[in-house]
Write a structure and sequence with these properties.
elongated, 2 helices, 65 residues, single chain
Length: 65
């Protein structure tokens, strides 16, 4: 039983590190100000993966006026 608790503690720590990494990457992607032109391919792919993983998260596209 103690081994299971150690594994759970380790997984919780790893999840916290992963969440921090995700937040930092999102901040990097969003924090560079408005870019002109098409977004980089890696960013489009990351947004698509996120949209597939979380159905509630929708990427909104802006319409040109």
């Amino acid at each position: 039983m103690a081994d299971v608790r150690k594994m759970l503690a380790s997984l919780y720590e790893e999840r916290a590190r992963i969440e921090d990494a995700i937040l930092n990457l999102e901040a990097l992607a969003d924090g560079r100000g408005k870019r002109r032109g098409r977004p980089p391919k890696w960013l489009v792919e990351a947004r698509e993966r996120q949209a597939k993983a979380t159905p509630a998260a929708k990427v909104q596209k802006k319409k040109k006026a």
